[in-house]
Write a structure and sequence with these properties.
It is a single chain. By secondary structure, the chain is of the alpha/beta class. The protein has two domains: 304 residues, Metal-dependent hydrolases (TIM Barrel, Alpha-Beta Barrel); 99 residues, no CATH class. The chain is built from 20 helices and 20 strands. The strands form four sheets. Strands 1, 2, 3, 4, 5, 17, 18, 19 and 20 form a nine-stranded mixed beta sheet that branches. Helix 9 links the parallel strand 9 and strand 10. Helix 9 crosses helix 10 and helix 18 packs antiparallel against helix 19. It is globular and about 80 Å long.
Length: 536
């Protein structure tokens, strides 16, 4: 007898098609049968050792977070309710060009310091791995939800070139090609870049194109955080489209937003650019989060020249009065490339987390507010905080536009990604709320997407980009990564005032046929594993 039958569910199967009522039978981690309109047809209903009454609930495929920063959280926090409770059954990590494999001892230490604001210091993690394959093997010991990995181009460059702003020598480029090929062979699904973060931003287009050729040869895709989301946003998008077309590599645009005042109302221009490329045969997808503010590290705003050489050199430059004044001028007058070519507005920069608990008073306030309380210029406050906390502070950047968010999420190649940073006392609520916020706010309350469209964007669209032949749909023989939610009540609990509140209306989540959320509570199941690239 099978393990589980989910009785009388309203199935939204991920294809975008109309929903239907059915009994869905799960056994051995897979969907083994779907009996449509079972009760009305009067047929012999399927039986199992356990029956779950899904009356009034929607059954859908598990949600795929196409842009997650859970690289260490999956190892640190077996509970991981921040994602499991949202119905996320697969996260794509290794984002924005910086993560923890492939590394050597030197690079690992540098990367840990560079992205401590994203993932914590890692002092509580046993970094026994060095290669992509070893990291994926570590995930295979058991994690809360599944995870796929992108090779981080910035980490690869740090490994082969270092943190200097210069062109890679031919032998260094050869090594980067080899390292990327090894990572793809070991199971990565593609490559990411952070082209406003060091050292990835120092790569010229020709270098990126060569690495993308390697990725494409293994059936992977390129996921860039491109060179500007502000003053040069459209040019930066156009650059990525041209680069990947030359390389013959599929393109997935990370957190594809149009931010800052210069881009208010300009989402249609981005979508027209993408539609033109798609019509010409380009393979493009994108992800967004359903909120207007962004989230990153405070140090990420600094100009690229100030970040050259790695974290220690950044701190030395900040400590030097003359150099710090040059940094201030770039930030406040010229428009730093780290701040997307737009002069920083300190009243939009809210501190969301710090590494040193003694600095907690800054959290939840903008830099301008803290400066006013201290009676000093905001740059003095920001500089002092960066030095005191050794580059660890994270920020919310309130620079988005609601009309752009809505326009982009409607596009046919759109997928959902939280870009959720789980560190800090007051993280962005997208880390805990992205997927129920789509379903509750943008589907039920605003009608920006239909329920069927939205579920497809969160399930089958990303599964297709990841080339997963048995995930992303409610189909027989597909992996039983499933979510049951109440369409009338599903909602994000997290908000900007209280960002760590779990959602409502998602009582059941299954990963590989095992309940990780049951009756609205996290079980002790560690059913997730590394999801490796499907061979081309």
């Amino acid at each position: 007898m099978e393990e589980l039958v989910i009785r009388d569910a309203d199935v939204v199967d991920g294809s975008g098609a109309d929903s239907y009522r059915a009994d869905v039978v799960v056994d051995g981690g897979r969907i083994v049968s779907i009996v449509k309109e079972a009760a009305a047809a009067g047929c012999q209903r399927p039986k199992a050792r356990r029956e779950l009454d899904a009356e009034g609930l929607v059954l859908s495929p598990g949600f795929v977070d196409m842009h997650a920063h859970s690289d260490l959280a999956l190892l640190r926090d077996p509970d991981h309710s921040a994602k499991a409770a949202q119905g996320v059954t697969l996260e794509v990590i290794g984002q924005d060009g910086l993560s923890y494999a492939p590394v050597d001892d030197r690079t690992l230490g540098e990367v840990r310091r560079a992205i401590a604001g994203w993932n914590g210091s890692g002092d509580d993690i046993d970094f026994a791995w060095r290669t992509v394959g070893e990291y994926l093997d570590r995930l295979d010991r058991g994690i809360a939800v599944n995870a796929a990995y992108l090779i981080p181009q910035g980490t690869v460059r740090a490994l082969a070139v270092g943190w200097e702003d210069r062109e890679a020598a031919p032998q260094e480029l050869d090594r980067m090609r080899q390292v990327v090929a090894e990572g793809m062979e070991q199971g990565a699904v593609g490559m990411s870049s952070g082209l406003t973060y060091t050292p990835g931003m120092y790569a010229q287009d020709a270098e990126l194109t060569e690495l993308c050729r390697v990725v494409a040869s293994y059936g992977g895709y390129y996921c860039p955080h491109h060179r500007s989301y502000g003053a040069g946003a459209l040019e930066a998008y156009r650059e990525m489209v041209a680069l990947t077309r030359e390389a013959g590599c599929p393109l997935h645009l990370a957190h594809a937003t149009m931010n800052f005042d210069v881009n208010e109302g300009r989402a249609p221009e981005l979508l027209a650019l993408l539609d033109e490329a798609l019509a010409a045969g380009a393979d493009i997808s994108l992800d967004t989060y359903p909120y207007t503010p962004g989230c990153t590290a405070l140090a990420a705003l600094l100009p690229s020249w100030a970040s050259e050489g790695g974290p220690d050199q950044v701190i030395e430059r900040l400590a030097d009065e003359e150099t710090a004044e040059r940094i201030r001028h770039d930030l406040e007058v010229t428009g730093s490339d780290g701040c997307h070519g737009v002069p920083v507005e300190w009243d939009t920069i809210e501190i969301s987390g710090v590494g040193d608990p003694a600095l907690a008073d800054y959290v939840g306030r903008t830099v301008q507010e803290s400066a006013d309380r201290r009676g000093e210029a905001p740059w003095v406050t920001a500089r002092g905080l960066l030095l005191a906390d050794r580059l660890a502070p994270t920020i919310l950047q309130h620079v988005g536009h609601e009309e752009n968010v809505r326009a982009i999420m409607r596009h046919r190649v759109h997928t959902g990604g939280s870009d959720g940073i789980l560190q800090g006392a007051k993280p962005h609520p997208r880390a805990y709320g992205t997927f129920p916020h789509y379903l509750g706010h943008y589907v039920r309350e605003l009608g920006v997407l239909s329920l069927q469209e939205c579920v497809a964007h969160l399930t089958s669209h990303p599964a297709a980009r990841l080339r997963l032949p048995d995930r992303g749909l409610v189909r027989e023989r597909y992996v039983a990564d499933l979510v049951l939610f109440d369409p009338a009540t599903v909602a994000a609990g997290a908000g900007f005032a209280e960002p760590r509140v779990l959602p409502t209306g998602i009582p059941y989540v299954l990963v590989d046929g095992r309940f990780v959320i049951e009756d609205g509570r996290r079980t002790d199941a560690l059913a997730g594993r590394a999801v490796r690239r499907t061979p081309a």
